[in-house]
Amino acid sequence: IGSDERCEANQAAGKLIFLSGFDFAAAAGILDIVAAEAEGFFDEMCLDVQLQSGLSPANSAALAAGTTQFAVIASFGEMVRQNVNGGTDLMAFAQLGHTSISELIVPAGTIRSLSDLQGKTVGIKGDLPSPVQAMLAAEGAQRGTFEELLLDGFDPVAHLALGIDALPVYKSNEPAALDREGIEYVEFDPLDFDIPASFAVYISSRENYEKWPTAIEDFVRAGLRGYRFAAENPEVAVAHAFELINAAGNQFWLAETHELSRWRVERSMVENVTPEGFVVGQLNTPRLGEEIQLLADLGELETLPDWESMLDDSVVPKLHDDNGELIWAPMN
User: Fold this and answer.
1) Which residue numbers delimit the SsuA/THI5-like domain (predicted)?
2) Do 218 and 94 form a contact (C-beta atoms < 8 A)?
């Protein structure tokens, strides 16, 4: 780190395109990268990074096709499913989240136990998140014991008004909308049921890693410095995000106050659930293995794949000194 040779190696990678997971929302895995670019951290690592708005489910295909070089994906399990079912060869290098970004909410005064959902109706946006599905199954409400209603849009107020009995949500999104409307609800969090999960996972292709190992490492390094900047300067970081959001027409009607709330929730999740002895961003390999075993148990994977070959858990630790501080030496 800090040498001319490393700078030249990083420059040789050329333009590196990063695809976000959900526009440039102030989410973990997105705001950290936005901050790193805006504050010049990638430039200091001799990296030419271009940010593009993306959606997590489609990012894997772009990486596999070589049209982008870095992305954030919703979970390690999602990446493994893409490798197994989609024929991609992607690798994970860092994870900000060590729990599920999703949870289940029910209207206040209705469901006391998840087993009570048998015979009830659960609203579904696309599909039932795997950690929520596993939580339900662990409490005796296996998929198939309740009705599923496919929902349109992302408005939890409108969804609950349909009379559904439960709704999977993003912890950093829909609860804030319900709070603003004064709607009372009860949360069932997979974390409280010890369900293994992850979120905000940095990924690239194996081919990219083999060609540009220092570029991969220093991209993660700059992203982690961006995370710390955003944690310490949330208003500035969100303002950086909205420069990009507004330049692209704000297609998802994002609001700065809501995005600040989203970041506060996700930052809290990152820092409160990162395991003791780990630095922020470090892969928890044993727990990720439990996540993949869970997907196999749920039938989302036909067999248990060689998931350990799909990550490199040495990247983040080597970016830190013995005191857990990020090593930073500008090269440009």
Assistant:
1) 32-237
2) no
pTM above 0.85, yes or no: yes
Q: What is the C-alpha separation between 134 and 136, in angstroms, rounded?
A: 5
Write the DSSP symbol of residue 279: P
Identify the helix (H) or strand (E) that includes residue 186: strand 185-188
Largest CA distance in the chain: 65
Query: Rounded CA gap, 220 and 203, in Å?
Result: 10
Which SS3 state, helix, strand or coil, does residue 71 take?
A: strand
Least Cα distance to 311 among 99, 54, 19, 89 occurs for 89
| Nearest Cα to Cα of residue 118 among 140, 149, 151 | 140
The tokens describing 32, both together, are: 């950290």
Sketch the domain layout of the chain as residue ranges.
4-98+198-318, 102-193
Helices then strands, each counted (H, E), the chain: 14, 10
Architecture of domain 102-193: 3-Layer(aba) Sandwich (3.40)
Say if 4-98+198-318 and 102-193 have the same CATH topology: yes
Query: What residue has token string 């069932």?
Result: 188
Q: Are the CB atoms for 108 and 322 separated by under 8 Å? A: no
CA distance 72 to 56: 7
- Element containing residue 164 per DSSP (H, E): none
pLDDT higher than 80, residue 56: no
Specify whether the CB–CB gap between 204 and 82 falls below 8 A: no
Residues 332 and 46: their CA atoms lie apart, in Å, by 6
The runs of H, that is alpha helices, within the chain are: 4-11, 31-38, 41-44, 56-65, 76-86, 130-138, 156-161, 174-180, 206-211, 213-232, 234-247, 256-273, 285-297, 315-318
Which pair of structure tokens corresponds to residue 1?
């780190």
Q: b/e per residue, 148-164, with b = 16+ CB within 10 A?
A: eeebeeeebeebbeeeb
Tell me: the pLDDT tens digits for 240-283? 999 999 999 999 999 999 999 999 999 999 999 999 999 999 99
